[in-house]
Every structure is written in structure tokens, then in C-alpha cells.
């Protein structure tokens, strides 16, 4: 069996070379096979080296922290975590006098916990806002039960910026690597100043109306009123049956331009029925959870010279979305209602 002290020297060597603990685990397994130090041991030694203790000798036996994963130690860790869930394994080990590897096993195997970063959400919702989200979702579900054609009558839409350069997300730029291969790196980048705003409306069958906002124009109530007039004309031409029946429904969010008095008066005078949308709820808006992310998937990470090139490629991406994807979007919308209800109105995407 390989000498553990020899392996500790190897761990120190990797640490000094700037290798990560995960890379070191892979290299030890490659060199020592089944005799390699365990992952928790390697991480414990890395933690010790980071604290400035560069010795590869075992800590003195007298007064050594407890290594037992017993009920008493599990209770100690649980109490410490309940006091402050941001405590690190190093802090917990020092506070409870339990070894680093034991704390790690108690957290992951005994308490079934994992360390996660806080999730950014559009807003920290109040009780009334969560209740409103649940009520809207329940109303939608009742409408579908009473009218199976309900979703087929909805035209939904929103606005979104399209950029000359939009960096890839961290997930999109991820790639597979072996334990010994270096981790890929890239410089931090920001969106370009070249941009144009797209307004797009769609239904279960596909795009109904799309247009770019002219440069320098803000989407205020006057402009949005003109957009709605053009949308009505597109519905008349592209969804003639819905137009004749006069039973199509409009869904948009609660942006100021969408809810202005002038806009509401126009909708009422033209018998345009609005499908309610709870405030601060992009996870319940098809444009936000489907259309724009799907459209921008092929645009991120690419550079376009000017606004005209941005528009050209945006339209290509938009037109590449298949009819069945729109149908799937409306099926997902129903699942989002269920998730929102089950989460008692809290945000649920990414959990």
C-alpha cells in the first residue's frame, strides 16, 4: 500500500503548483489507483495548507479533534449550522473541535446538505404578491378545465434588447475535461453598446407579430398603442378565424406602457380582453421563460458589426424556432402554474 505521508507530500507539491483540490484528487488516483488518499482527506490537507500550516505531519494525537460521526457530533454540527448557514467547514471544525473530514461527511451524508449560492430573483416577494401569483395560476387552471381551447386563443408578447455582442452564459461556455486537463479560462466580457429592441407577439402556432423599435424611440404608452394597432392588423391577417370569432386574448406583463390609462381605454374600446399577469413574474411569462432565451441561444457569444446585422441575425434566430416548440412552450406554461402553486407563490425556476 502506498505510503500516506508520501502522498501528502504529493498533495503539497500540487498545492504549491496551483492545482485545485479536485485536480489533485484525480492525479493521485491516476498514480496510486485504489491506494490513493480519499477526496475528503485531500480537501482537508488543502484547507490546512491554505491556512498557512505547510507541515505534512499528522496533527499531535493528544487533544486531537473527534473523528466520530455519532449522534452527538451530528447534533453539534446541526446546531452550529442553524445559527449561521454561511459557516464554512473550516469554521465548523474549529468551533466544534470535530475533524474537517468528519464535518464534511456529517454535512453531506448525515444531514444531507450541500452548499449553494444564493439565487438571484426579480424581487423578494411579499405575502400579498405570492398569494396573487397563486390565485392567477389557479384561475388559469380553472379556465383550461372549463375551456380546453383557452390557451389556443392567447396571443402573448413582450420586448427585449438584442445586442451586437452578448456574452455566453457560464453554463453555455462549459465543457468536459479530464481530471488532469487544465480548466478552461476566458476573460470577463460585457454586452456591447450596439443594440436594438425587439417587440414580439406569438401564440401556440408561432409568431403573430414582430417589429424592432426605431433608434432613439422609447416604448412609452403612445408608441405601445401604435404597436397594438399593428398587432390587431396582424391577427386579422394571420389568425383570421380568431379575428372573426372575436375571442382572442392578449397577454403581456405589467410594464408602465402596457398598463397606462390610454392603453387600457384602447383595449376596452376594441373589445380586447387581457389575460392577467402577476407583477414581477418572468417565470410565468412565455416570452421570458421560452421565446427570448430560445432566440438568443444562437446569438450569444457572436459579434455583429452594427444594428442592421443584429436585426438580420435576430430574425434568422426567431424564424428558426419550429412550430412544435411553440406548442411545447404553452404546455410548459401550464406546468409553471403547477410549480408556482406548489411553491406557494415563490419563484421556482432553477430550484
UniProtKB/TrEMBL annotation:
Occurrences of domain Mos1 transposase HTH (ranges): 8-53
GO molecular function term, any single one: nucleic acid binding
Coiled-coil intervals: none
Classification via Gene3D superfamilies: 1.10.10.1450, Ribonuclease H-like superfamily/Ribonuclease H
Sequence segments annotated as region (Disordered): 166-189
Domain of life: Eukaryota
Polar residues bias spans: 170-180
One Pfam family per UniProt: HTH_48
Name of the protein described by the UniProt record: Mariner Mos1 transposase
Organism listed in the record: Cryptotermes secundus
Lineage start: Eukaryota, Metazoa, Ecdysozoa, Arthropoda, Hexapoda
Amino acid at each position: 500500500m502506498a505510503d500516506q505521508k508520501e502522498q501528502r507530500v504529493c498533495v503539497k507539491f500540487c498545492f504549491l503548483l496551483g492545482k485545485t483540490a479536485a485536480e489533485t484528487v484525480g492525479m493521485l488516483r491516476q498514480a496510486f489507483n485504489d491506494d490513493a488518499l480519499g477526496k475528503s482527506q485531500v480537501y482537508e490537507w488543502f484547507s490546512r495548507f491554505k491556512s498557512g500550516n505547510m507541515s505534512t505531519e499528522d496533527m499531535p494525537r493528544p487533544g486531537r479533534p473527534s473523528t466520530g460521526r455519532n449522534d452527538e457530533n451530528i447534533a453539534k454540527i446541526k446546531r452550529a449550522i442553524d445559527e449561521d448557514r454561511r459557516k464554512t467547514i473550516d469554521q465548523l471544525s474549529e468551533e466544534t473541535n470535530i475533524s474537517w473530514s468528519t464535518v464534511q461527511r456529517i454535512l453531506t451524508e448525515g444531514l444531507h446538505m450541500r452548499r449553494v449560492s444564493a439565487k438571484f430573483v426579480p424581487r423578494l416577494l411579499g405575502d400579498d404578491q405570492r398569494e396573487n401569483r397563486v390565485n392567477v395560476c389557479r384561475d388559469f387552471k380553472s379556465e383550461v378545465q372549463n375551456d380546453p381551447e383557452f390557451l389556443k386563443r392567447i396571443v402573448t408578447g413582450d420586448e427585449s434588447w438584442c445586442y451586437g455582442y452578448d456574452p455566453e452564459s457560464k453554463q453555455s461556455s462549459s465543457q468536459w475535461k479530464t481530471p488532469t486537463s487544465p480548466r478552461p479560462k476566458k476573460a470577463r466580457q460585457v454586452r456591447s453598446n450596439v443594440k436594438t429592441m425587439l417587440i414580439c407577439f406569438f401564440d401556440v402556432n408561432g409568431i403573430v407579430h414582430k417589429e424592432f423599435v426605431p433608434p432613439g424611440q422609447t416604448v412609452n404608452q403612445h408608441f405601445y398603442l401604435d404597436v397594438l394597432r399593428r398587432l390587431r392588423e396582424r391577427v386579422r391577417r394571420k389568425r383570421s378565424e380568431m379575428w372573426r370569432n372575436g375571442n382572442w386574448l392578449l397577454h403581456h406583463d405589467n410594464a408602465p406602457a402596457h398598463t397606462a390609462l390610454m392603453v387600457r381605454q384602447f383595449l376596452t374600446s376594441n373589445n380586447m380582453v387581457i389575460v392577467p399577469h402577476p407583477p414581477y413574474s418572468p417565470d410565468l411569462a412565455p416570452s421570458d421563460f421560452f421565446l427570448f432565451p430560445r432566440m438568443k441561444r444562437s446569438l450569444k457569444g457572436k459579434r455583429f458589426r452594427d444594428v442592421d446585422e443584429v436585426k438580420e441575425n435576430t430574425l434568422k434566430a426567431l424564424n428558426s424556432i419550429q412550430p412544435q416548440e411553440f406548442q411545447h412552450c404553452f404546455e410548459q406554461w401550464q406546468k409553471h402554474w403547477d410549480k408556482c402553486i406548489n411553491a406557494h407563490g415563490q419563484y421556482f425556476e432553477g430550484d
